[in-house]
Every structure is written in C-alpha cells, then in structure tokens.
Amino acid sequence: MSRQLLSMALAPLLGLFILCIGNGFLSTLITLRLDAAGTSAVVIGWVSSAYFIGLALGALFNDRLLLRIGHIRAYGCFASLVAVTVLLQGLWLDPVSWFVLRLIGGWATVGVYLVIESWLLASADTKVRGRLLAMYMIAVYAAGVLGQLLLGATTAMGEAAPFMVVGLLASLSVLPMAMIPRVSPLIEHAEPLSPLRLITLTPTGVMGCFGSGLVVAAVYSLLPLYLQRSGLGVAEVGQMMAVVVLGAMLLQYPIGRWSDKHDRQWVLIIIGACTAGLSMALLLASASWLVAGLLFLLGGGVFSLYPVAVGHAADRAPAGALVRMSQGLLLINALGSMVSPPLITPVMAVLGDGGLFWSMGAVGLGLAGFFVWRRSVRPAPLPTAPFVATQTQTLAGAELAVTDDLVQGAVEHEHLEDLSKAVPEVVVAEPVVGPPRADDAHIAYYDDAGEASRSP
What we know:
Order of helices and strands: HHHHHHHHHHHHHHHHHHEE
Number of domains: 2
CATH superfamily of the largest domain: MFS general substrate transporter like domains
C-alpha cells in the first residue's frame, strides 16, 4: 500500500475510530439507563428500534446530501448531529424524547459510515481495496471493544458523564476529517432492487440478511438488559459486551475463509444451528467464565451470518445485478434490525428475561431449517464470489465494494452451462513430407500417434 494511499485513509479511519468509541457503549448505556428508571422491556425495545429505523432511512436518503455538499462537510454535519442528539439525551430521561433522538441519531450515524466507506472504497483500486476494508472493520470493532470497557469508568463519573463523553468524542472525530486534503471521491446514486425481486433472485441471501438483522440488533439492544437483570453491574455488563464484539472481530474472518472453501449453504446451516445451540446453552450457564466463552462464540457466529449470506447471494446473482442486489440486501438487513426489539421484548415479558435467548434460538433454528430446505430445492454451485469480511455497509458503500472478483465470478457462473456444452474440435493432420514453409513453421498439430506435424 502506497504512502499516499495510507495518508488518504488514515484520517477517515482515525475519525471513525474516535466516534465509534462512544457509539460502542451508547446502545448499552441507553438500555441500562432506561431499565434502571423502571421502564418496561417493551418500551426499551421500541426506543432501541428507533435507532435502526434511523439507519434504514439514512441508508435511503443520506447519499443526496453527500453528493450535494461533499464528503468533508457532510461528515461534519453528521458527526455534529450525533453529538447534539447524545448530549440532549443526557439532559433529561424521557422514553418518547429518547425515541425521537435515537431515530435522528441513527440517521446521522449511518451518514458517518456512508462518508467513510465511500471515501475509502473510492480512494483505492481493487488490488488494495480488500486491505482498506479490513482496516475499516478493525477500526470499528476495536473501537467497540474499547467503548464497552469504558462504560463502567464513565458511569462512575456521574449520570450525565457518559453522554458528555460520547458527545465530546463525536465532536472530536471531526478534526481528522477536517485536516485531510480537499479531494473528495465521487459516488453515484443507485436504486436497490425491490424486496420481491430479491426474494426471487436469492431467497437464501434475503433470509440470511434478515435473520442477521434480527439477532445482531437483539445482541446490541437487549443483551445488556438481560445481563443487568441477571445481577451484573454496569462495568461487568460492559466487559461481557466487549467479549461479544471481540468474538465478532476474531472469528468473522476464519468463518469467511471456511465459506470460500466449502458450500456456503452448509456454512449458513451450521451458523444457524450453532446460534440455536449457543442460545440454549446460555440459558443454562451460570459460571461467569462459561457465559463469557459462550458469548464470544455467539458473537462470532451471528456477526458472520450477514457476510456469508451476501457471499452466497453473489454466487447466484448475474453480473448486472450485483450492485443493486447488495444495496437491497442492506435494506433487508436494516428491516430485520428495525423489527427485532419490538418482536423480542414481548417474548421477554411473557417468558422472563430468558425469552431473549429463546427468541434467538428460535431464529437460529428457523434459519437452519430454511437453509436446509433451500439446499434440497436448489443445490448451491461451487463458490465463485470470495468472502470479504466487512461491516454492514451503506448503499453507496455497497455499490463501491462490488469487486472485480465478484463480477467475474458471476459472469463465469452465468456462462457455465454454455461453456460446458462447447465441444472442442479435434484436428488430425497427415504428416508433412518435405521441409515446412517459412510462413507456417510456427503452426503445429498432433496426429493420432501423438507425433508433431505441421499444417501443409
């Protein structure tokens, strides 16, 4: 990677890392603070869902602002709005107000990801794009781990202190972006495929992305609630959430490499079954070390579900639909995240706090069953689209993340049947008597006996 490219990527990644430290524990903080105030699990679920609603809305509309004012100014607007919404939450605690503020915060946060993703992906060619995406993923997950570990320390400083820290970090993240050269890459707006068209094109990919949204949103929004109600303190909840994110960071790439070498449908089936099994095991686990180990494995599994599902969809899609398919799958994932808390919290109200893992187990088992059925209906071809371990991206980021390998793999798959029908013509020539001509001395054939002969 050239020094010029590294200098172009360093400032955006540094700004993202600073902002994500605060965002890393914000969802956990909001869940714990509402629960401490006596708010019901159903209301907590709706407040958590507001953030994902904002993500979905921002994924549809934020690219227009970016195209109008450019990357640097757009980042400043989005990061400042994140800081304002968080600081307002620290002024008073009201579920209705927090619902609105979380919705606006989600809209602004996905705008930040849009700026960073499109900047990184458009700044490099395909030879180094994978490494930039790996750096992007490491920055996000490392900041998440650090943020969860800081939760206990900031909470001990006072009730409003955590919100002030998140707001300060969001404001501070503008500085690296403001100091980079004013050279903004261009992005193009593209409309996603309709959900019905996506279901027809890749049912397994659609269900995998939707199920990923369900379980990942539950982990971020409702797992802290379960841990606190099980008797853990705020600092211990942050440590357990850090273990989950650490599992996502360390296990996603090995699982992706595994899916490159084997049938992705089988990988999805195993991930779904493991999600169900780990969820049931967490219901029975009591020792803290055992709970931490199971959460580490659960984080690695549920966070790998989305990229493996996208890789499977790319194996099936024609070359011309890769970009719009990726964007549509992002919206499907956002819809799953949006409905997850309102669907799971009523189960927790009926079955108790363990309803979280009953729900996640049911989702994992349902996904495994669906993938088995789809494999019996339409067996998967040999993998052609390599796995890329990335964060769930915005629309523009997904458009620019479609690599040449994905396109080439889809083209080869599309023409595989035609190529298999082609029969090479066998040319049998008689041995040449006499010296060859100078103009055709480079042309040679082989007769039935395997001896070289030249065209007459």
